[in-house]
From TrEMBL, chains A, B:
SUPFAM superfamilies in the record: PLP-dependent transferases
Protein's gene: hisC
EC number of this enzyme: 2.6.1.9
Annotated metabolic or biological route of this protein: Amino-acid biosynthesis; L-histidine biosynthesis; L-histidine from 5-phospho-alpha-D-ribose 1-diphosphate: step 7/9
Gene3D superfamilies the record matches: Aspartate Aminotransferase, domain 1, Type I PLP-dependent aspartate aminotransferase-like (Major domain)
Organism: Larsenimonas suaedae
Enzyme's top EC category: transferase
Top-rank taxon, per record: Bacteria
Protein name, entry field: Histidinol-phosphate aminotransferase
PROSITE patterns (alphabetical): AA_TRANSFER_CLASS_2
Gene Ontology molecular function: histidinol-phosphate transaminase activity
UniProt domain Aminotransferase class I/classII large: residue ranges: 24-346
Length: 353, 353
C-alpha cells in the first residue's frame, strides 16, 4: 500500500498462481502436461536464426494465426493470438464486458475471472454450480453484460456438450458469450464450429496444457472476425507485440505435429481414467473429468490434511482453501509413474489414519 | 465497429507500430539495432532444455530480475520485468496514473502514451516542447496526476542530463514521475541512481534497442520497492506470467555479456555521428540525438517526398504525418554500410530536385 498507487489499485485482489517450487517434487499442482513439447519445437529453438531477434516480431503473429486457422478450419481473420490465454482473456474482458450490466460467471470457475472484473470495474454476477458441480447453463440471467465460463470447467473438470452450449447461445444473443476451452483437448467437444452461426461466440484456448508449452505463453481466441477486430483494437491500445518471435515459430511447429499432440492427449486421458479408478478404490470421491486434472474429495480425511501429508512426501497438488472448494484437492494428471507414486502415497496416508 | 464491443472500445485510437515489411529493404523505421544479440543468446536457444517448456515460467522472472539488479546496482525488489517496455508502461499507467488529475506528458513523445490514457480513461495534459524540440521540464504543471516522458525523447532524440531530472524531481514529489529510458544506452545519463533518493521515481527500459532483442519482448522498470509492488499487483491482476522461459534465459545471457553490449552501443553512436555530419552536408537539418535514431528535417524537399523517394529506392524510414512532426523523418541508425547507402540515396534525391 503506497500513496503513489492509483486509488483503485489499492483494492485489487491479484490472482495467485500455483506454486513453482525450485526443489524437486512431483508437481501436480498447475495442470502442466507431463510430456515434452512436440519434437519440432526443439528443432525451432536449435536452428533459430538469432540475428532475427534484433527485429520486432510481426505484430499480428500472422504465421501462427495461419497455422491455427488451418488446424481449426476457420479463416485467419477469425483468429487472435496473445501472451497466454490469460492475456487473451484480459483483452476480451476489456473488449466486450466493460458495460453497466453485470458479467455472468459461474461461482466456481477459473479464479482469474473475478480478478479481471476487479481490474476493469466490472460487476460479476456469480451463478452457483448445480448440485453435481456442473456449470448451470440454465441459470445465467437473461439481462447480462456478457457470459464467461470455462468448458471443461476448472477446477471441477466437468464439460458440457456442444449441443448444450448451442442451446445456451440460442438464449443469449445480445452480448458476448466467452467459452474458455483451456482444457478442451482432454475429452471435451469444442464450440469452435459454432462461431459461424453465432456472431457473439468467442472461444479461447491455450498452448499451455495440451501442447506442453506453458513456458512459452501462447494463447488464442477464435470467433467471428468482428470480435477478433475488437480484440485487436484492445491489443494495439495496450501492447502491440505480445508474442515474441521464438514463441510464434515454436507454436507453428507444435501445430504442425498433429499426431504427437493427439498421442499426448490420449495418454493423459488414459492415465486420468486409471488414476480416477485407483483413487476411488482408496475411498476418494472423484468428479467426472474431461480435463488434465481431477477434482477429488477425500471422505476419511480432511482435504487440507491430505494436501499436507502429500506435500510431506514430496507431492504437490492444489488445495483451494475457500468455501465450496475446501473439501477437495485438484490433482493434475502426470505420467503413469508419477500417478502410481501418488496413488501409493494416498493409500499409505489414508491407511495410516 | 460492432454492437458486441464495450462502449469505450469503440472510441479507442490504437497505436500504429512501424511497418514490418516482408520483402528485403534497408529497414531504418523502427529503431532496431543493426547488430545481432550477444553470442550468449544463441547458446541459450541452441542448448535450451525443451522439456522445461511444459512448465509455467517463474511468475516473478527472478533470474532476470537478479541479473538486472546486479547490472544496475540495485536490489532485486527494485526491479520489475514485463513483456516489452510497452507492457511495463501499460501496467505503470494503471498502477500510478489512474487519477482524477491529468497526467502530464510532452506534446511530442512516444505516441503510445496518449493511447494508454485512452485505454484507462486518463486525461492527458500535453506540454509543448521547447523551440529547440526539447522536453520542457520546467513547464510540467505542479498539480498533476503524474508525469511521463521519454529520455532521450522520441522521436526527437534529445536527452536531458541527470541533474536536470533531479531538479524536476525536487519540484514534483507527490505523484509518480516515470522516465522512459528506452534509448538511454546510446549516450544519455540514466536516472536510475536517483531512485534511492526519490520515492516517486520510476525508470523503464527495454532489451529491444541496445540489446538487439526486440524479437523477444523484454522490458523492465527500476524504482523504489513500493512502486515495484504496485506494478506487481497490476501484473497479477492481468497476466501473471508475461515473460516466457526462453526470453528470461536469453535476457540473462544478454546482461552477462557486458562487453559485447557496450561495443554495439559504441558502434551505433559512432555511426550516428558520422551519419549526422553526412546528412547535414546534404542540406538536411539533424536534431542533436542521444538515441539510436536521428530526427532530420530536409530543407530543400518536403519530408513526405523524401520518404517516398527513399522508399522507392528500398530504404524504409519513419514519417509521422502529423502537425509538428511532418517536416521531419525519423531515421534509425543501421550499420555503416546501410547508412552509406542511405546517404548516397539522399544525395541523389536532393541532387535530382
Amino acid at each position: 500500500m503506497s500513496q503513489f498507487w492509483s486509488p483503485a489499485v489499492r483494492d485489487l485482489e491479484p490472482y495467485v498462481p500455483g506454486e513453482q517450487p525450485r526443489d524437486t517434487v512431483i508437481k501436480l499442482n498447475t495442470n502442466e502436461n507431463p510430456y515434452p513439447p512436440a519434437p519440432g519445437v526443439a528443432k525451432v529453438l536449435a536452428d533459430y536464426p538469432i540475428d532475427h531477434l534484433r527485429r520486432y516480431p510481426d505484430p499480428s503473429s500472422l504465421a501462427l494465426r495461419e497455422a491455427l486457422a488451418a488446424h481449426y478450419g476457420v479463416h485467419v481473420n477469425q483468429v487472435f493470438v496473445g501472451n497466454g490465454s490469460d492475456e487473451v482473456l484480459a483483452f476480451a474482458f476489456k473488449a466486450f464486458f466493460c458495460r453497466e450490466q453485470p458479467l455472468a460467471v459461474p461461482s466456481i470457475s477459473y479464479s482469474f475471472y473475478p480478478v479481471y472484473c476487479d481490474f476493469y470495474g466490472i460487476t460479476p454476477h456469480k451463478v452457483p454450480l448445480t448440485d453435481s458441480f456442473e456449470v448451470d447453463l440454465d441459470a445465467f440471467p437473461t439481462d447480462n453484460g456478457g457470459i464467461v465460463f470455462a468448458n471443461p470447467n476448472a477446477p471441477t473438470g466437468h464439460a458440457h456438450s456442444r449441443a448444450a452450449i448451442e442451446a445456451l447461445l440460442d438464449k443469449h444473443t445480445s452480448r458476448v458469450v466467452l467459452v474458455d476451452e483451456a482444457y478442451i483437448d482432454f475429452g471435451g467437444e469444442s464450440a469452435i464450429p459454432l462461431i459461424e452461426r453465432y456472431p457473439n461466440l468467442l472461444v479461447t484456448g491455450t498452448f499451455s496444457k495440451s501442447r506442453s508449452l506453458a513456458g512459452l505463453r501462447i494463447g488464442f481466441a477464435i470467433g467471428p472476425a468482428d470480435l477478433i477486430d475488437g480484440l485487436d483494437r484492445v491489443k494495439d491500445s495496450f501492447n502491440s507485440y505480445p508474442l515474441d518471435s521464438v514463441a510464434v515459430a515454436a507454436g507453428v511447429a507444435s501445430i504442425k505435429d498433429d499426431a504427437y499432440y493427439r498421442a499426448c492427449c490420449a495418454s493423459v486421458i488414459a492415465t486420468r481414467e486409471r488414476t480416477t479408478a485407483a483413487l476411488e478404490a482408496c475411498g476418494i470421491e472423484v468428479l467426472p473429468s474431461s480435463a488434465n486434472f481431477v477434482f477429488a474429495r477425500p471422505t476419511t480425511i480432511e482435504a487440507g490434511m491430505l494436501f499436507d501429508a502429500l506435500r510431506a512426501r514430496g507431492i504437490l497438488v492444489r488445495y483451494f482453501n475457500k468455501p465450496g472448494l475446501d473439501q477437495f484437492l485438484r490433482i493434475s494428471i502426470g505420467t503413469d509413474d508419477e500417478m502410481d507414486y501418488l496413488i501409493d502415497a494416498v493409500h499409505a496416508i489414508v491407511g495410516e489414519k
